[in-house]
Amino acid sequence: MAFIGPEEAPQSDFDEKLAAVEKLPLFTKTLTDEDTDNVAMQALQSLAYEGTPDEIAANFKEQGNDYFKGKRYREAAGFYTQGIDAKPTDKVLLEALLCNRAACNLELQNYGSVLRDCAKAMTINAKSSKSFYRSALALLALDRLDEALDCCERCLSFDGSNQAIRGVQDRVAKAKTEKDCRQREREERLLKERNERQLLQAALKAPSSVAGTSENPYSPRFDPDDASRSTLILPVFFLYPQHAASDVIADFVEDTTFSAHLSQMFPPQSPPPGWDEKGEYTATALVVYAMTRRKRLLKVGKKMTLRDVCSAAIEKTGEPIDGLELKDGYLTFAVVPRGEVEQNWVAEFKRTIDNQ
């Protein structure tokens, strides 16, 4: 038995019926100023509230059913509310009004209201199949899948042949399987990312901030083309201290030589950067220096790879821990022209270190 609300009628039949009903003063939806002063009109409308509470509630229920059949769910809910407000003593009638209003709110996607009305109906009838069914649909829409399954199971415990509930149970079970699968995939991804961070930390001998900060749009990572997960790709700063300028190499593969990058950045036939007014920065005329954590200055040969420099920076046995320092996810190297500029910069660097 599948149910959402009162049985729906063909739209054409409903429209004709409703148009005829709304012409009657008792059921009219709009009043003119002239109508509100009409004593007969007021008397007819008051008839809607004459009779016992059960009779009044039953009348509003029938009107609500007509509007529900025409898919005018908001108006239907209004009539059911008036029926509930009449405080009927017939518990079956009150349960039906609550369930029908829940059906309207289910269509209107007011899921909290659905659950509240169904809960009230269940206090009247603990075996209200419609209440369990609509509660399960609302909980499914809210992604409260365990609660939705519980609703289905409770209903089936006393109404085992209810095919509508079994259909919802199948939908909820499928949604839960998919959600659990997504959760497992998320956990596996997080575990993989955590393991990769640990491998990076071990490879770089860096603190836990090695993965970068919000100021660094790039991050150290393993080369996806290396199945052995042993080749790092790191973001690198080239600082030009003579001019307070810099370049970023976002993807410096650790088995690439420094000369390969310098030859691309400062080719001999290309015009120099705007800040290099003397034209001193050409690939063949530049020297690269690395600074370690212990403030040692290492001269980098152009044929050296980033991996070579990392290995050269590691402390020897028995010495304090050392290595290249990763700040905000970047490695930093100084690039200066060979000759007098280089000598002056190295001397200034040493003086700065000695004064610290």
From TrEMBL:
GO terms for molecular function: Hsp70 protein binding; Hsp90 protein binding. Pfam families: Wheel. GO terms for biological process: protein folding. InterPro entries: Csn1/TTC4_wheel (IPR044059), TPR-like_helical_dom_sf (IPR011990), TPR_rpt (IPR019734). One of its GO terms (cellular component) is nucleus. Coiled coil: none annotated. Gene3D superfamilies: Tetratricopeptide repeat domain. Residues 225-349 form the Cns1/TTC4 wheel domain. It comes from the Eukaryota. TPR repeats lie at residues 57-90. Keywords: Repeat, TPR repeat. Residues 205-224 are annotated as: Disordered. Belongs to the TTC4 family. This is Cns1/TTC4 wheel domain-containing protein. It comes from Scleroderma citrinum Foug A.
